[in-house]
Amino acid sequence: xxxxxxxxxxxxxxxxxxxxxxxxxxxxxxxxxxxxxxxxxxxxxxxxxxxxxxxxxxxxxxxxxxxxxxxxxxxxxxx
Length: 79
Description:
By secondary structure, this protein is an all-alpha fold.
């Protein structure tokens, strides 16, 4: 299982996707597909993490989903 598949299978992430799907469907008046909601949830998660909105323990937990090269680059940027 790839890291991306692991994230997509995570129960908390799947619940967030369902919440995004429901909210976006109500706001737009058109039913959103699960794939569309999943993409929006990933955008929100990445934006929030890159904006400094996550604490260090949360970022370390999310870092396990990054490929090894990206994780090494992120560690280098922090130091």
